[in-house]
Amino acid sequence: MGCWDALAIEWEGLKYYKSVFARLIMDPATKAKTSFGQMFRGIVVGAHYEWLTNPKKTSESVVEEVCGKGNYDALKGKVVIITGATNGLGLENARCLLKYGCHVVFAMRNKEKAAKVVAEMQAKETLTGKATFINIQLDDLSTVKPFVQEFLAMNLPLHCLINNAGIMAPPVYRASKQGLESQFAINNMSHYLLTHLLLPKLKETAQTSGEARIVYLGSLAGEACWNIDLDTSVPSGPEFYSDIGDYTSTKCIDMIHARHLHDKHTKDKIFVCAVHPGIINSGLGKDNPGLTAAFYAGSSLKHTHKSQAEGAATTMYCALSPEVPKKSVTEGAWWYYNCQPQRCIGFASKATPEFQEKLEAKCWDLAKAYA
Ligand SMILES: NC(=O)c1ccc[n+]([C@@H]2O[C@H](COP(=O)([O-])OP(=O)(O)OC[C@H]3O[C@@H](n4cnc5c(N)ncnc54)[C@H](OP(=O)(O)O)[C@@H]3O)[C@@H](O)[C@H]2O)c1
Which of 137, 190, 284, 336 should be mutated for ligand 1, with most atoms under 8 A from CB? Predict the structure, then answer.
């Protein structure tokens, strides 16, 4: 990249930081969800703490630790559903699971892309597991039940559901097929309904196999959310939309869902975690050039970035490590990054059981017609 291109990216990033700063002071839709202090603690301090304590594990090294290096049949018979496994972190998780013999169900919207990425991986290395592709459009709730019906018709167990797919901060308000704000629809609602419909299968697998797991992709951005107003922000309407504000609140909602399910289902031996993967220059946020320049392409946070392989490590840890059930039971651990439990400092840690129930009821109201 030329010097002028690099400078243009820095400039674009600076403009985005400036716009976020201005909105944190002036814009009611941003201020209602995140604040300067919470963003500083959640993202800036959090990213630096994470960088300093990075164990440098990769998705593959975590799987090797659990399965034994080179034991490529270790995950034979295990079934994992991953949403958004056609790109970025989900793809790296799928690769490692397939390498060690797992049956990975790609919950995806583009079968050609899924077939292509799997063929590319197979051309590079032997993958002993099986890949199945089932269509789901996470911005259309009416596609969730057909996905689940197709999966259940295969009569397989379900050892782990990885709610990974997500979008970040489209600059302009977009609505899903059902008229819900798109980040809320994709990051939260489709995963809410998917999890609800798959819970009986997860319970059945936990009874027959000893345990099952659910992993949510949260974020330090979720830690930057200071408040979720169920009336105005779940979901936000066009007049109350904030690209970054709604990203923080939807990631926080993912974390609250994880915490709620953790507390409810640990007794059923369904272990539920939320994960911050790190800051990874994947495809996330690609619709927002300013944010991409600020967080990913520019230099300001570059020193804190993880590789895709490192970023996918904690999800694998939460999906496979024998430590997770122990830590769930003994420490109540549900929030992880750098392959270990962390102290949650944002709204997700403060949300009372009453708030959690109200949030669940709101999501159920929006989802029940499609259940
Ligand atoms: N990267 C980071 O720095 C970072 C940091 C914190 C948290 N996270 C979280 O990590 C998760 C994965 O992020 P990533 O970095 O891997 O992102 P990514 O590279 O952009 O991948 C996103 C995946 O989600 C899928 N997806 C998006 N919209 C969809 C829809 N409407 N229907 C079906 N699938 C859809 C994409 O499918 P296509 O391939 O068809 O586009 C893709 O497979 C997200 O939940 C994100 O919030 C990421």
Answer: 284
Structural domain span for residue 17? 3-370
The Cβ of residue 111 has, within 10 Å, a number of other Cβ atoms equal to 13
Mean pLDDT of the 52-66 span:
98
CB 172 within 8 A of CB 242: no
Is the CB of residue 162 below 6 angstroms from any atom belonging to ligand 1? no
State in Å: Cα 194 to ligand 1 middle: 16
Residues marked active site are found at: 241
pLDDT in tens, 250-278: 999 999 999 999 999 999 999 999 999 99
Give tens-digit pLDDT for 329-363. Answer: 999 999 999 999 999 999 999 999 999 999 999 99
From first CA to last CA, the distance across the chain in angstroms is 49
CATH of the domain at 209: 3.40.50.720
- Percentage of the residues of the chain whose pLDDT score is greater than 90: 98
Which residue has tokens 């709204």?
347
Look at the chain and report how many structural domains it folds into.
Answer: 1
Output the pLDDT for position 2.
87
Rg, the chain, Cα only: 19
Whether ligand 1 lies within 6 angstroms of the CB of 30 is answered as no
Report how far ligand 1's centroid is from the alpha carbon of 207 (Å): 31
Arithmetic mean of pLDDT over the chain = 97
